[in-house]
Structure formats: C-alpha cells, structure tokens
Amino acid sequence: MFDAGPTRKPLVEVRGLKMHFPIMAGVLRRRIGAVKAVDGVSFDILEGETLGLVGESGCGKSTCGRAILRLYDITEGTIRINGHDIARASHAELRKLRPTMQMVFQDPQASLNPRMTVAKIIAEPLDEHTTLTRREKMQRVHELMDAVGLSRDFANRFPHEFSGGQRQRIGIARALALNPKFIVCDEPIAALDVSIQAQVVNLLEDLQDQFGLTYLFISHDLSMVRHIADRVAVMYLGKVVELAPREALYSAPLHPYTQALLSAVPEPDPSVRSTTERIILQGDVPSPANPPEGCNFSTRCPRVMEICRRQEPEFREAAAGHFVACHLCTPQSETTAGATAATAVPKSVQQGE
Amino acid sequence: MLNYTIRRLMFTVPVLLFISFIIFLLLDLAPNDPTGNLPMTIPPEVRQQIRESLGLDQPIWVRYLLWCKQFFINEPLNIIEQWFGIQIGDGDRLRVRSWATRSPVVDLIVERMPQTLWVVGMSYVVGIIIAIPIGVISAYRQYSWFDQAGTFISMVGFSVPTFFTGVLMIVVFSVWLGWFPSIYDTTLVVEDWSSFVQQVRQMAMPVFVLALFNAAQISRFMRASMLDNLNQDYVRTARAKGLKEKTVLLVHVLRNSLIPVVTVIALNVPQVFGGAIITEQVFKVNGLGQLLIIGIQGADIPLVQTLTFIFAVLIVLFNLIADILYGILDPRIRYD
Q: Cα(B207)–Cα(B221) distance, rounded to whole angstroms?
C-alpha cells in the first residue's frame, strides 16, 4: 500500500479545513472567541483505502470527521469527495450528495432513533433518496441485515432491544443502505466490549472488500488502527501532526507527539516491555480556544526548541508519503535542530517497537 | 400492558377510599357551619334543629359510611336506572343532596359540566394548539428574537394571575371596545348562526385568558423537550441520512419530544374538569369551579365532599392514563 498510493486517485481531498466554534458570552451574547476544534487540516484519502485518524480525546478527530461530511458548517477550507465540492454545497445539493458519503457513529445507542424499528431506521434513507416500492425496500433492508450479520427476524424490533454490538451493526447497515463510496467511522468501536470490537472491525473490513468502500477510521485505539488502516494521520489540538503509511508510522514515528503516543501502547510481550521506554508527557493539552503560539505541541514537547515557540512548523513530506509538521524534521532549520532530528530517527525506532 | 392497567386499577380502589376519608375528616374539622349564612334572627335552638335535621349530630363514622353508601351504591344505581330506563328495587334511595339547594349533587354537577367543559376544555385545547408550534420554533431557533419574545410572553402568562388578565380584558374589550360581552350567558341556546356567533363571542375572553396560562406552561415544556432531543445523536444520524430538514424536525425530533409533553398534558386534564374557580367567577361562567366555591362558602359539606372526591378520582385516573400513554408512545418503557 506504500507504493500503491500514487497510482490510485484520491476519493476525498481535504485542504486547509478549519472548524471553529464561536464562544458567546455576556449579556448580549457577543462573540468573544472561538474554539479551534479543527485548525487547518489537509489530507487525501485514496479510493478503497482506510485512513486512520488518531489522537487523544478532544483533539478534534470527531469534529474533523463530521466536518468532512458537512454535518457542521465549516469555517474555512475545501473538501472534495468524488469530485464534488462539499465545503460550499448548498443544503439542497448536499442532500443529493449524501448517498455517496455516510457515517457510522460512536454511540450506537444514542445514534438510533429510539422510537423507530430497525427496518424503519435502515429504510429511511431509501424513502428519501430512491423510488423503490415498499417490497423492494423491504428486500433491500433484508439484504443489508444479512450483510452485517443481523437476523432478518429482528427487523421489527426497536434499538433498545439489542446489545451494543448488534446496535452498531444496525448503524453500519443504515450507513450502507444507499451504496456509499466513502464512510466516516467515528470511533465505531469505542463504546463496545473488547470481545465485540474485533467482530465489528472485521465486519467493516469484510464490507470494504465486498463493496469497495473507502473509510476514514477515527479512533484513539492505536492497535486497532494499526490493524485496519492503510495510512494513519495523527492529530493534536486541531492539527494533523503526522501522516504516514501504517508501517512507517508505527516503526519510525518522526513527530515527538506520535512517539509519545506510541510509547503508551501496552506491549503484550513482557521481555520487550521491560526494554521499551515510556515517554510521559508533562502538563495538559492547552485549550483549543487559546492554542499556544508557534507549534501547538511546544508546551508539552520533550524536545522543544526555541524556534518551536515562535514559528509554526510546516506540514511537509519528510520521506516518501511520510508527512510531518515538526521543526526537528525541517532540513533548512538551524543546524542544532538538524542534528537533533538526525539522532531522533533511530531513537524513535527503538521506542516504537 | 393490560395486566399492568388492571393491577393499577385495583390499587386505585383503596387509594380512593382513603382519599375520600381524608376529605371527609378535613371537612369535618373545618370550623364552618351550614346555618352560618342564615339570617341572624333565627334563634340558636332552631339552628340546632336544622343541624340535627342535616344529620350533623351523628358520630363522624356514621356520617362517613352514610355518604359512602349514598355515593358508591345509590348514585351509581340511580345512573343505571336513568340510562337504561329500568327500575332496580323500589327506586326510593337516599341520594347525596346539597344542603343549600336540596337538590341531588350529581344533578347539579351534570347541569354545570357543559359550561366548564366548553370554556375550560376549549381553553386547554387552544392553549395546546398555540403552545406546540411556539415551543418547536423557540427551540429550533434558540435565542432568536422569536424565542426571546416567546419566553417573555410565557413568563407573563405564567406570572400574571388570571383575575388580573381577566379584568384587564373585560376593561379593554368589553368596556372600551365593546367587542365581547363581559358576562357569560348560560341560557343562550345555539340554534342558528347568529346564536353561534354570540356563543363564540361570549366564550372568547375566558378561553383566551385561560389559554394564555396553559400555553405558557406547555410551550415551556415543549421547548425544553425539543432542546433535549435536538442535540441527540440520532438527529445527527437523520441529517447524515440526507433527510429534508422538515423530516428531521417533524418526524425525528418532534415525535420524540412530544412524549413527555403528552404526559404533562394528560396529567393536567383533571384541572379542566375542576374548572377554573377564579376565571369562572370573573366572567360569571356558572361552571364547576363556581359551584365548588359556592359550596365552600355555604359549608355545603355533601356538595364539597362529592366534588372534591370526583376531582380526586380524575387525578388518579389521569395519572394512570399518563403512565399508559408513556408506555404506548415510548417503546423503551415496558410495564410487564
């Protein structure tokens, strides 16, 4: 998948995406600032691939996923999905584009209308976007239930009568109803038991092979992302700090944040565990309403330099297909920085594995 | 659900008996005297005789059991006789009689029920019809000028008492403008268009005064419930499905938001039967509210006892209806 990249065409192109939520306060509810949940994110997702989007809670992963599907009105940037401009489409145009892009939500309980039966939930997009007869719709609902491994007998049950894993299957069937090309999976397994997580992830992979789907897989579970994703993007405080093919990212992370994040993954092998060094970050994530000047990570970075506090690092290609936004990896920066970057790479290999 | 309803109904029997006893005790403890409104010239011995003729010299448990017999046995038998035109036994039963008018209390209630149901019931319906769209729009456009205005009007409707708004309306619309009559005429018979218009005109003001009060309450519930649901994940799912905004709002959000509102509406229905004591007084509507206040003033214990007990029955019944409605509307609620 590393070298397959350039030959396939991108299905989703995101450029400079910003999603700022206004903060209103005072008697007249005037705008006093903005929460910069997503602050200038750019990436492509190739047709048929899975892009993993990881980061800690509150870094803007989910917002990013929702903004790409225009479930929010974005502040800035362009989004093209399958050649259509999503960022500036009107609501009416957007409704027509919805069938190509769908979403699987994090909370399978809350994201299903409690007063609708499974059949109604799955068939509702069909009512809206197709002219199938009642019989054909029922047929399609049954096909979808088969595809996600739900018994057809459950069609007339309500969501609360299912277990978490089954509910997530309903959510997936619903997303598949209109034959989408692109699905944003917004932490689809976070609310599930570990034993069920694997089932759902395997189901998503099977469906990808079957229907040629493209996924944006949002998760904070690094080992799960490693399992499912072809390429991985790491977010920190509203920005993508590193984007690389899976193996490159997990074996040789370049950004200090990615290194810290990967060092936190539990190592099942005890002999290896004793040798791995855990990087513990100090302090808290700064408020996205008031991000630090320069690099967003400069307040917590273990290898922070003077330039980091002044100048925002550029998101550039450090190796083939391996993008990173860090002054440590910028060749033309000061010589000291270059020297640190050179030593950083072998060190991070040891930390990653 | 059926088992649940039957079980609940069975429980209501002891509850209601207990309530009836409490009402009886309270009325007995109250320091009022049925002869108190009689002229001062009547000597105390005669007053005592009047009290004895009303049965007030009997011990309380005798009087209570007598009322129970009259209300739970004689009155239902009487209703059955009237409905089916049959005679059970010799037909000569002691009925619950008002001390003031000497006519059976049930007949008084039947006489006054239509006015109350028309005026207070209509105001409830109008209130709901006004409140639901206001609640929906206020929530959908939270903090807009519409929402602010709606909040302001709700607060006014809530906090300004009906004896003030009622009198204000009489001054403005009857005295100054002369659009509506200030007194409700019960003898008016609706038989043609002009008498129908007359009926509508005389109902307009009391209905509006009460509707404002009801709408204020229900629109707040509706708004809160809508706001609760608008932020739910399933609404985002509905949008992601590419549904029209109208469908998202009316099919997904509104239907789910109506569940608590419907139960609140059901719980308030007994108030309609209870009549609006103050508003009925202001507009001279001779409904149940007015009957109750007259009964209280005259220490007409059988009348007050019976009316209060009927309200208690309605409250218990509509509590049950609200619970059952909740079970029907929300598939997550199961009672069995």
A: 21
- Can you list the positions of beta strands (E) in chain A? 10-25, 30-46, 50-54, 76-81, 84-85, 101-104, 182-186, 214-219, 231-236, 239-245, 316-319, 322-324
**Alpha carbons A167 and A188: distance in angstroms, whole number:** 11
Q: Which residues touch A14 (CB under 8 Å, ≥6 apart)?
A: A41, A42, A43, A44, A68, A77, A78, A79
- Whether B242 and A69 lie within 8 Å, measured CB to CB: no
* pTM: predicted TM-score of the whole model, two decimal places: 0.81
pLDDT one-digit tens code per residue, B295-330: 888 888 889 999 999 999 999 999 999 998 888 888
Calpha distance A311→A325 (Å, rounded): 11
Interface probe for A, chosen from B142, B233, B250, B325 (most Cβ of A below 10 Å), is: B233
- What strands lie across the sheet with A101-104, from one edge to the other? A101-104, A182-186, A214-219, A50-54, A231-236, A239-245, A322-324, A316-319
**What pLDDT, on a 0 to 100 scale, did the predictor assign at position A283?**
82
- Integer CA distances (angstroms), B31 to B23, B25, B62, B307, in order: 14, 12, 20, 19
End-to-end Cα, chain B, rounded Å: 6
Q: What is the pLDDT of residues A223-275, one digit of tens each?
A: 889 999 999 999 999 999 999 999 999 998 999 999 998 888 887 777 777 77
B213 Cα to chain A: minimum distance (Å):
28
Interval A114-127: pLDDT, tens: 999 999 999 999 99
Residue by residue, what is the 3-state secondary structure of B161-197? CHHHHHHHHHHHHHHHCCCCCCCCCCCCCCCCHHHHH
Q: What is the C-alpha separation between B46 and B42, in angstroms, rounded? A: 7
pLDDT at A339 over 50: no
**Amino acid in position A329:** C
Task: Indicate the average pLDDT of chain B.
Answer: 88
Residues A55, A259: Cα–Cα separation, whole Å: 12
Amino acid at A95: R
Of B238, B247, B331, the CB nearest to A158: B331
Least Cα distance to A8 among A59, A36, A54, A45 occurs for A45
Asked whether the beta carbons of residue B329 and residue A174 sit closer than 8 angstroms, the reply is: no
Say how many C-beta atoms besides its own lie within 10 A of residue B133's C-beta. 11
Residue ranges of E strands in chain B: none
Is residue B173 a contact partner of residue B179, using CB atoms and an 8 Å limit? yes
Amino acid at A211: F
pLDDT of A349 strictly over 90: no
B112 vs chain A: nearest CA distance in angstroms?
Answer: 42
Pairing of strands A322-324, A316-319: antiparallel
